[in-house]
Each structure stands twice: as structure tokens, then as C-alpha cells.
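Complex record, three chains
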Amino acid sequence: MPTTISKKKVLKEWKLYLFILPSFLFIGLFAYYPALSAVYHSFFSWSGGDTKEFIGLDNFSRILGDTVFWGSFATISVLAIANVFKMIPSIFLAVLIHRLSSERWQYWYRVLVVLPMIVPSLVTLFIWKFFYDPNFGILNQFLDATGIKTLLVGLDHFFHWDIFFQNVPVAWLGESALVIPALILWGFPWIGSVSVLVFLVGLQSIGSQIYEAAELDGVSSFQKFLYIEFPLIMTQVRVTLVLLIIGTLQSYGLQFLLLGENGGPGGRGMVPGLWMFNRAFIAGEFGYACALGLCLFVIILLLTSLNNKYVRVDK
Amino acid sequence: MNRTLLFLLALAASLLSANAQTQAQTQAQTQSAPPLREAWKNASLFLFNDAFSQFQKEKTTNPREASLGEALSLLGIQPKTQKNLARSLSILTALAAENPSDEIGLAARFHLARIDELHRTEPNLPAARKQYLSLLEDAPASPFSQIAASRIALIDLHLSAPDPASLDETEARLRPLENFLRTPEGKREFHTMVGLVLNTRLGNPTTVLRHLLIASKESFSQKKIESDVLFTIAEIADTQGDTALAKQYYSRFVADFPQDIRTFLIKKRLEDFSAKK
Amino acid sequence: MERIFNAIGLGLVALAFVASLGRVAYLNWNKAAEESTKYTHIRLAHWQLERGIRNAFDEAAREYEKLHPDVRISQIAIPDRVYTNWLTTQLLGGTAPDIVELGFGSSEDRLAKHFLSLTSLANRPNPYNKGTNLENIPLQNTFYDGMMGGFYPGLMEFYGITLTTNTIRMFVNLDLLKEITGSDSIPADYQELISVCEKTRRFAKKFSRPIIPIASSRYNAPYLMNRFFSSQTQKQTKKIGPPGDFPQNAARTVEAFVDNAWSLDSPDVRSGLELMRKIGREMQPGFMQGTRDDALFYFIQKRALMITTGSWDSSNISSLANFRYGIAPIPTPSKNDPEFGPYVLGTISEAATISGMGLGVTASSKHPETAKDFLLFLASKTGDQRFADTSKLLPAVMDTTPSQAAKPFQINEEGYPPGFNLVASSDWADTSRILNNSYFKLFSHGGNVQEFVDTIRPDFLTAYGTDLARMYSARKRASQRFDVKLAADIQLLSCPPPTNSPAERETKTREAKEKVDLVLSSLNGNDRSTYYLREVGEKLQNKLLSSPR
């Protein structure tokens, strides 16, 4: 229960507030100032330099007819849905680690999961780009060595995809039909260090008496997961889901690095964030990009509040 | 600990003194120059905010010139707002009404026309044209009037562009303006404007040639424009079969612009002429 | 144990703090000592880390110091990745070096605020050219390109003096070429290029070696593709424009498209696209998603026989390649080419190449006149020759001789202007996007020209419209700024700068008059383009409204 502090006492200890002042200043300067500046500039025709002209809501009304922006939500929706499924391996691994009887081994597995976090995300992106290289990438070498490529060529003949050909390396990032699969495949086997740790925290908070009771009832290993573990880590799943949706909607680094500023073949990799980047740094329409960012912010806010309202966890 | 403190204090003191020294230097530099010169220099360097505050400070010593500077800086200050535009408009209108024929008044009238032509969200070209014409008729010798002539030409030809058949008629209507051209720069700009704009809109080549030939007699400050004028004259003359004129201008081009991307093409054409002889 | 670790950690932090404090104090001490000596110190900052270029700057500095014993010049080489941040900090802190390489971090706003205009230098003869054939020629006219690399159209001023020139060339791995063809001879024309590419593919297949004929990327490909495509539109360009409009103004190209003077089905356009496809098929699959580094990697790792890039990559290639390589111009089809010759006017000229490595003088410089003088020394005929000889870069000043290493990059002026391209430059963001998103239809194994055209056709005109509108808006803003500049420059004519020398006053007044004339001419030129862009834009919108989608 929170204790109440008298106003007099609050004012008496005013010096203490000086300690939090630097943090407030930094947050204001580096978090709120850029965000507020973006709100301000969204009402201007501004090309990033010194000159800008106030144009009211013109940028926002332009967004309504922006087919690329709204079209990019189709791509992001597919990626967001895929990302939800890509959470499964992390949950699975967390459960496996949790069920290890040796605490020592649990510790070492946790270390193994955390270790990749040291590798900068940019390096991971570059490595994956290298995997997709048509001529000497690992993916094509794997397909050739295992004979899957021949199978794909056969399927291509049958379905008339016009993508896979014998003796022609597969351009994973150079064919519009392969862009989304390549983006989904990225990060295989999709084990997120942070997600695993978050789920582990949830799993470790489950009392041992629950497991003991379940064992007395003769519950199988899978049933334990389905009826005990999964429902009890739903809070963590929900938090991860919210962060995942926000992250997916905001992110464009992967698409930018793998496909370039135009979203690659057929613009299939164009996501809202990348379109915002494209308008700002390629078309020089910084004011419009700010308006796009603001629009994206509202959408994310809406989705988060929907998620908070409807994805409830009954404990 | 005390030493560190002393060191830091000494460091801060030296920084402050260096700053004060720089400020004093800047002040001395500013004071030694005529008051409005620095403000105009800043306006010329697109530093409109600095210029604006300097003009405002000097309003008591030289009110008309400072007001003109203030109004023009307002046109440049970013972000561009309707409020600044209206304020600039009102200052310029007052300056023009106070004395329409002194240098400041003429400059104010020219910029009032420029506001109608360019600074409004939706331009009012007929209004701009009217003001340019009145400026030209009232004070043809002013440098602003000389610029106004080429502005009228551009507006008229632009308004006729959707109907190419009317271009000749428009050009004929512009000819009386030639009587107002007083300076070499004014002549060059007017004839270059009419010639190149007509040529781009696929106007009558003979008319284009007439204007560009007059322009080519003057000296050009923009070498790119001069090269375009010379090349266009030569090409039109070549198309019209006037080999002598074409050769004259092709040769002038090669001599004046040996490094241009068109020089080799022109040299080949000149070789063709020699071969035909 | 924990205490010991804590103590070690604290000790390390304290040590690092003391070390940095010491370093800063040492640097300041040195700087102070330097400033207190009898010498005038000039600092020059750039991002050219290659040894040749640094030696060239050093050599020039020592030569200058011989002529001016009271001057000492030092250079600061900052990696290009941090150059923008570094320069920003220095400029805002008022501690910027006297001379700075322009490019990264020197936007027009910054140039106006933190740099000195060099326009008056550009208009006067370079005193260091005395005794040469360039003696009485204004500085800007002693450059191949009129020193346009140092001219900033948005400010209508020269802010930089340039030193080098860059051209695009084809680099060929000679060891690999010999292995594949049995000869060292680099393809000299288009047919030879295609033949070598075919031999490379056969060689790769026969020996199961992952070698591709041409390494490329979305960075490198446009250089090659634009050159090949515009070779096919040369004749058409000359026909569709009014007399004198060659090379063509980009807005005219769009107007001609709106007027149906050319279309995506025109034979020359189709031929250009066919040519692009042929060349694109010789590059690695999906090259449009690759970066500049990817392409270089292919070439350096001997996985590609050739690469097309600028002379600026020459030093990288020279330091990384462990094989012999040759450099040659891009072999576009000649007039006599049986397949692509009919549309060609002739070899494309490189005369429009703009000089680079511009050096500017900062407004915070304590010795601006010495800094400017050193730049004049560098940009003199002998100065640029010396710089080019040591740096192995192509000189920018006229009548200089390139070094043996730079000879393959020499500008080829003997050629014709190029024809139009589907997209004039990267400024055409939306048209570029439409094309880039559809190139896979042109370059992929299953693609073809018809499919590519069918893909871009629905959005092509709209994209042209969006780009035109953006350009119109940018031009209009530039004119609005020039308006104030023009008025200011006219006012400045009536209050010349304070000086006691009548000759100096006369020179300054003349220069001020020239400046007004230059701004007036630019303003009118800019407005001519602005109005034309508006007309073409309106015409295009009318067509869009009248055409069924």
C-alpha cells in the first residue's frame, strides 16, 4: 500500500529532485525533443535543409491517398504474423531449458542463449545477406547439395512459377516472389535471446507444487506444457507479442539492408518504416516523412491499446 | 582534490576569457563596418534571421533601407509562413506608398511584384505583370525595371504556352518593351529570356534566332547560358540553311567552350561544312 | 574477491580518465606552443586516407613552406565514416581547421554560415600560374570543368577549389582473362565484351568455378546501364527536341513522352532495354540488391572477371587485388554494330565530367588569406601537376599531364552528348523507384523487355508527374531565396567594403557588380526552368486525367 507524503515534506527535500534532473534533461533532449520536432515538421513542406513552408494538414491528407504506404501494411502484416509463429521456437527452448534437472546445465544453456546477443545486429544482418548470395551463399549451396533445388525446379515446371531454373542460381533477394519468403526465413531457427530469457523468468515463477500435483495426476510432458506452463507464461507471451508488433511495425533495417531503399523487386519488401526512410532520404520529403512517422505512431498506439484491451490473461 | 578544483577553475577562466576575447573581436569587426552593410551581407549569404534582427536594430538610423531589409528578410526567414508574408507585404506596400520613385521605393515595388509572382502559395501572375509594367514605365533606368522586362516576357510566354499558336502574337506584344531596355544586362536578359523560352515551347525559329542574336552581342556572366545561346543560334541557322551564320556561331562556340560536351559534335559539323566546299 | 574486482574496475576507470585528461592537456599544450611560435599554422582536414594522397598533400605543404618560410602546414586525415560528425563538432565549436575537404557534413546551410566564399578568387587569375600559359586566365577557367565541382548552385557561390577529376572505367582481372581467353587483351568494343562474357560463362560451367563476367550492384549498375541505354537514344534525342536542346533537358524528355514523341514502345527505347538486359544477364543474379562493397568483393575475390566503377575505387582495388588488372573505357556499341549500331550517333563524350576533392576555407580560420593562398598554390598548373603525380589521381587543371597510373582514367572529350535516359538522375526518386522495383523483370532468367515494360507502364507517367512536382517545388524555393540575395547584392553595391586602397576598392566594386549580374542571370535561368516544369507538369496531369487507368 503506498504511503502518502505531506506536501511540506516534498518541498522540504527539494534538493533530492536535482538528482533526477539530469535524467529528465537527457530524456527530454534525446527522446522527446526529436519526437516533438517530428510532430512540428509534419505540418511543413520541408526538404531537410533550412527552407520549409507551413502547409497545414496537406501532408496528412496526402497520406490518405498514398498507395505505397497503405500497400506496405500488407507486407508488414505478413511479417508480423510470421513473427508470431517465429516466437514458438523461443518458447520451446525456454521450456526445454527450464525442464533441465541440472541447475548447472541450465546456467550454461542460458549463457549459450545470451552469447549471440554480443554479436552486433548489423553483423548478423550481413551474415544473412551473405547466406542469400546467389553464387556462393550457403542457402543455394545447401539446396544444390541436398537436391531440394531439383525438386523446386520440378515444382516450378508444374506450377509455372518462373522462378527456379536448372543451372541458374536462385536470386533470393532478386525475385519479387521470393522476397517475402526470404524475409521470413531470416533468423532461422528464430531463437530470440531476450524472448527465451523472458519466458524462462515466467517459467521459473511457476511453483514446484504445481508440477508435483500434475505428476500425481499422471499428466504427460506435453500436457504439462499445454495446461500449466503455457497458460502461466501468457503474461510474458503478451508482453513479447506487444514488443514484437511494435518492433515489426517500426523496423525497416532488415529490408533496407537486404533489399535497398525501394523495397527490392516489385517493392515487395516495402514496409511502412522503409517508406518513411525512402521519402525522407531518397525523395527529400522530410516533412511528409515526419507525417508518415506520426501516422505510424498512431497506428502502433492503437494496436497496442487493442492488444492490452483484448489479449487478456486470466490468472 | 584542491589542485583538481584549481585546475578546473583555471580551465573555465581561460575558456571564458577566450570567449570574451572572440566576442570583443566580433564586436569590433561589426562596429568598423557601415551598420547596414553587415545586415545586407548576411541577407546575401541567406542568413535571414541574423539579417532580420540587424535590420530591426538599425531602423532608427536608416528607417527606409532598414525596413526594406526587414521586409525582404521576412521573405527568406524559415519556416515560411503566411504571417511573415503578410508582414513583409505590408512593409513593402508602405515603403512604395511613401516614395514610389526613390531607390528603396523602386525596390519595394519590384518585390511586391515578386511576391505576387513567386512567394504566394498560388501565384497571381496578372497582378505581378501589371506591377512590373508600371515599374518599367515609371523608371526604366532602375536596375529593378531592367529585370522587370524579362519577368514580363516570361509571364506572358508562360501564360500563352498552353496554346502554341498564340506564341507569335505574344512575342509581337512584347516587342514594345524593347524600347525600355537601357543596360546591356537588361537587353541580354530580355532577349535571352524570349529566345530560349520560345525555343523550348517550339516557337517560330526565325523569331527565336532574332532574339538570341541580339542577346549574343552582349557579355554573359553565366557561361552555361552563353553556350546554350550560341549553340541554339548555330543549330537554328544550320536547320534553316544559313551555313554562314551557323559556321560563325559554331566556330565561336568551339573557340569559347573547348571543353564543352557539344564541342566534338560541332567540330564534326564544321568538318562537314568544309568537306561540302 | 568481489572487493578486489571492484577496486580493479575503479582503478581502470580512474586510469582511463587520467589518461584522457593528460592527452587533452598535452594536445592543448602543443597547440598553444604551436600558436605562440613565429609561424603561421594552417591545418588542412580531409578524408583521403590513401597513402598517395596524403603524401601528395605533404609534398605540396613542404613546397609551399619553402616559398613561405613563415608558414607551417599540417594535414589531418579523418576516416570518411566519422568525417561528418567530426566536422560538425569542429564547425560548431569554432575549432575547425583552416582548410577542410567539402562533401561530408558541408551542406549549403553550413557552407553559408561556416565557410568563406571563394567566388572572388575564382574570378581572378591565379598568381601561381605566372609564367605559364594560364597566367592571365581567371582561376575557374583554368579548370577542365570551369571548377564547377567547387560551385554551389543553391548559394550561387564558389566555396571549394577542386584538385582532381573522376571518370567511370571497366576494371578487368588480367590473370583471369588470360586463363579464360588465353589472351591479355581487354575487350575494346561491345562485340568483344559480349564474346568475353560468353567465354567466361562457358569457362565457369566447364570447370565448375563460380565466376561471373561482370560484378555489379545497385550502386555500380546505373553507371553502366545509363551509358548503354543512352547510346541507343542519341539519334532520337536530337530529333525530338528543339534546335540546341542536346544533351536534352530532363523536363523536355518528359514533355516529349507526354506528347508521344517517344514511348516505352519506341524502337530505340526497346533497343536500349534489350542492350541493358544483355549486359545485365552477364552480372550476378540479383545484383540490383547488392551494394558497392558486394560488387568489389566479387571482383577482389576473383569471382568476377570485370567490374565497372569510378576512378575513386582505383586505390582500393590496387591495394586489395592480388592479381594483375587492366583498366579500359566502357565499350558501348559503335555506329557499325550490326545489332545496336543503327541508333548510335557516336562514342559518348566525357567532357561534362565535374572535378572533385573540393577544399574550402573555414570562416573560423585565423589566417584565411594564407589558407586561400595555399589553395591557389595547390590549384596552380604546377601545383595540381605535382599533386596528381604523387597521388596518382587525375588532375583537374588544364594542360596538366596525368601520371602513368591515372592515364586510363583520362577524360575522353572526343565524343557526342548522350541520349536521354528513362530517369535523368537519382533526384527522380519516384521514377527511379518504379524502375528499380521492376528491373528483376528485365534482368532475371525468366524475364524479358516486354514484361519489364508492361510492369512499369501503369505507374510510369504518374511517377514522372510526382518527380516533376517535387522539382518544381525545389526550384521555386531556390528562386524565393535568390530574390532576397539579389536585392541584398544590389544594396551592397551602394555601400562598398571599407578599404584605403583605390585599386582594391575598384576591384571589389567590379566583383560586386559581377556578382549581381551572376545572381540576376541565375535567377532568370532558374525561373525559366521553374515555369517550364510547371507547364510540363500541368500537361502531364491533363494527360493523366484524360487517360483511362
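Note: Chain A has a mean pLDDT of 89.
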